[in-house]
Amino acid sequence: MSKATEDRIEIHPGDITKLDVDAIVNAANAQLRPGGGVCGAIHRAAGRNLREACAKIGGCKTGDAVATDGYELKAKFVIHTVGPVWHGGKQNEDGLLASCYRTSLKIAKQIGARSVAFPAISTGVYAFPLERATQIAVATVRDFLAEDEAIDKVVFCTFGAEAEAAYRKELGR
Ligand code: ADP
Questions:
Q1: What is the chain's percent helix, strand, coil content, to nearest 5?
Q2: Domains in the chain and their CATH numbers?
Q3: Number of C-alpha atoms within 13 angstroms, CB side, residue 110?
Q4: Residue 156 to residue 50: CA distance in whole angstroms
Q5: Which of 64, 80, 117, 138 is the most exposed, having the fewest neighbouring CB atoms within 10 Å of its CB?
């Protein structure tokens, strides 16, 4: 029998670049440049080959995702997804954020990654309200896992007490 959806979801407080999972997701920018925040940290940890791989791809649309190798990371792959910038909620930010999680998991399945870690996409510089983003992240991941057995484990990597509390509340843990 397959493992229940809830047993395949974990919260991990800390730095996503340290995680030993098949794929980590990057909250990337549309140009796929190193930038700051979690994206800058991932690029620093993965090394210059990641920057070159991203430059070769050239860019990614909001709500979409692309995969590269993980280079110097423990993770074999990085899935780069571009979250929406928060403009008040009337520009399909919710739909685009859900698409980031869904598309990243679809790509993980395509490349054979069975364990995937997500940061709290769009909740930093892109200013998406944390609680609302957390609800979308958890609901979208739950739906995907319930429909599809390709992914064994999804880790929500929380950076800071506020994000950890939001995920614990949403997951009821
Ligand atoms: P965005 O531009 O999508 O808002 P940010 O990188 O600014 O992306 O922030 C996204 C989330 O990633 C924020 O919740 C931030 O606290 C978190 N974050 C920053 N650095 C790390 C890291 N090393 N590991 C995990 N999460 C991180």
A1: 45, 20, 40
A2: 3-171 (3.40.220.10)
A3: 11
A4: 22
A5: 64
Ligand 1 touching residue 17 (CB < 6 A):
yes
What is the atom index within ligand 1 of the atom nearest the CA of 35?
Answer: 6
Specify the residue for token string 């950890």: 164
Nearest CA to 16 among 26, 6, 7?
26
Whether residue 15 contacts residue 119, with contact meaning beta carbons closer than 8 Å, is answered with no
As a dihedral over the C-alpha atoms of residue 106, residue 108, residue 109, residue 113, rounded to 10 degrees, the angle is -170
In order of 27, 33, 62, 86, 107, the CA distances from 125 in angstroms are 10, 15, 15, 9, 25
pLDDT confidence of residue 3:
81
Instruction: Record the pTM.
Output: 0.98
Task: Please name the residue whose Cα sits nearest to atom 7 of ligand 1.
Answer: 124
Q: Ligand 1 center to residue 26 CA distance, Å?
A: 9
Cβ atoms of 77 and 69 closer than 8 Å: yes
Q: pLDDT value at position 42?
A: 98
Whether 98 is in the pocket of ligand 1, judged by its Cβ within 6 Å, is no
Mean pLDDT by 10 residues, the chain (173 residues): 87 98 98 97 98 98 98 98 98 99 98 98 98 98 97 98 98 93
Judge whether 43 and 51 are in contact, CB under 8 Å: yes
